[in-house]
Amino acid sequence: MLAYLQKTEDYVQVQELMDTFHVSKRTVYYDMKKINDWLLANHLAPVDYVRGTGFLLPKESRSELPIKAKGVQLSQYYLSRNERKAWLGLHLINRTKPMFLRDMETLLQVSRGTAHSELKHLQQELKLFGLKVTFYRKQGYMVQGTEKDQRMALSHFLSELLAGISWKEFVSQIQGLINVNLYKAQFPAFQIDKLSSIYDIITDGEKAIGMELTDETVVHLAARLMLYSNRIIQGKTIVMDQEEKTALKETPQFKAAEHISHELGKLYKKTFPEDEVCYITVHILAAKVNKLDAESNDLETKKLHQATSQMIDTFERLGCVFFQDRQALEKQLFLHVKSAYYRIKYGLAIENPLVDTFLDKYREVFELTQKSARPLEELLNKPIDKNEIAYLSMHFGGWLRREQVEPMKRKTAAIVCVNGVSASRMLKIQLEQLFPVIDFTVILSLREYEKYNGRVDFIFSTVPLSDSRVPVFTVNAILNDAEKAHLLNQLSPYLNGESIAAFCPSAQAIVELVKKHAAISNESALHEELKRYLIATRSQAPKELSPTLEDLLPSSRITMLEEVSDWKAAIRIASQQLLEDGSISDRYIQAMIDKVVEHGPYIVIAPGVAIAHARPEDGAIRTAMALLSIQQGIAFGKDPKHQVHLLLVMASADGETHLKALSQLTAMLLEEKNRAELTFTVDKSEIVRRIHKYSQP
């Protein structure tokens, strides 16, 4: 648990620890007491606990832990359940002498019953790799299976142990564990004096082909190479398929693997056979890379290029977005797709510590990527797990922001909160989501504020402050949507570099002005529409304000017709409501028509359903949707499957705000029953009812 807390700077809730380590609440508190006893004994600040918020390891303790690990004693080192399983798996596969249950007790520092329980859990996990644990009276427990399957399991356990740590942290962890003799006898290849040499060998191998691996990859590859060297020393070598070896030897990565194998051979005084060189080539191909100068031109690479292009096509179509620098995106994404392909193909799975965070904050992007990844799944003939999907999603999400948002000069701010630590942290989280271009450098109580001499651009306070030298924005500890919208309006002039006296009209002021010259049939609706428009034009909406399908597609934007003359007329008619309410300009309509002329009926996304769209810069003023129901249908192509009854028009002002609504629309249209009833209904209220149903959280 201590290692888990060390990886995050945020509070970790008790339930999260219970779920992660599969333990009871009582065990969490018991382990935390042991951790705090150890921290205090080593003159480190204990884990902070806030009721209702969770546990937090202080920053100073987090930075000192790697140093303290070097001197840790056996009786002081407590392995988590996940670590126990991973280390037991590594030991059992790499054992060089008989291993019995009593050895597992000593290794894991647990009771006999717990050791037996851990062994049972490990047996179940090893089955997933085609491995079996057997027991012999004189030899103890052994893992049986092919060398390739055993190495796949080793890679898996290493990934669990090394997720999210740096090279420096890895070296410190190895040093600490060697000091407590947890695995020194089992792993003769694990020698501290060779760690830096292996790191240098990998970096030299990178240079040989103009490749740059990510920092995380270097850590994982170094650990694997030490384990594989250990296997070769024991006489346990890999056997590769001859046809596979021939293909691998044609890749630039084979040259790097040759260099690495040669240097490892000198380091361990052992010759690496050609099959091992090819196996290292696989690991380099599966590695996450920042750049690669040379690239092979074999059939497999060509298929991966094609799959990458198809993934981008699908993401653009389903997400109703257009990537402007398509060539650069395809080049970068290909590196990620290729690495993922080889990891999945050869069972070299890696843990993604950011999966849950990404799913929580950017679920729409994740789901779009998951649907877009089908060309890669077809190439592999197997599904892609959420760890790999999340890595690909992060790339797509980063590119979306790269193209749609101009970098802004960062501002700094302080938070003054009189409601306690939990409320302060909650307020900070909300403000960080609302203003990603502001660095919130300090949280102060009122008494701390009176003594504070630091320099910031703004202050957000839960109480009025009359003596501040910088702008102060008075806020509640918990903000509702209306308060967030108001705060966005207030901050917009400062964030855009305008003066304090800059003109900043409010929705209500505009309504009052319009009332002087025209009759308003629905003042509250006009006020709401103006408010949304002003927010959209001043600042990107935060995630909490992401509109639903019902928000973007109200009843007033649904048109029902018996028939239309042709598909171009259908797009113009469907767009009319968006044109009249100022959501799009005339040129956006023409841009949608031009896209169909250029690319064909690609906008037909399901039987009887099409979504017309263009780029934000083609005339999308704000994010909105409209729907045209055509009873007789209209042909968007010669094929019968291009006959459309439901034509939606999608306008997105920033290429991202519409994703939540689009996700809800997709969920609604995935059900054949919904498509059938929506296609042939003549009752608008039935369409509105279904939209409302799928717009709920």
Secondary structure blueprint with pairings:
Blueprint: H1 2-6, H2 14-21, H3 25-41, E1 48-50, E2 54-56, H4 59-69, H5 81-94, H6 101-108, H7 112-127, E3 132-136, E4 140-144, H8 147-162, H9 167-179, H10 192-208, E5 211-213, H11 215-233, H12 242-249, H13 252-268, H14 274-285, E6 289-292, H15 299-319, H16 326-345, H17 355-361, H18 363-372, H19 374-380, H20 386-404, E7 411-416, H21 421-434, E8 438-444, H22 446-451, E9 458-461, E10 472-474, H23 481-495, H24 507-515, H25 523-538, H26 549-552, E11 558-561, H27 567-580, H28 586-599, E12 604-606, E13 609-613, E14 624-635, E15 643-651, H29 659-670, H30 672-680, H31 684-694
Parallel strand pairs: 7-8, 7-9, 9-10, 11-14, 13-15
Antiparallel strand pairs: 1-2, 3-4, 5-6, 12-13, 14-15
Helix pairs in contact: 4-9, 5-7, 5-8, 6-7, 8-11, 10-11, 10-13, 13-14, 14-16, 15-16, 15-18, 15-19, 16-20, 18-20, 18-29, 23-25, 24-25, 27-28
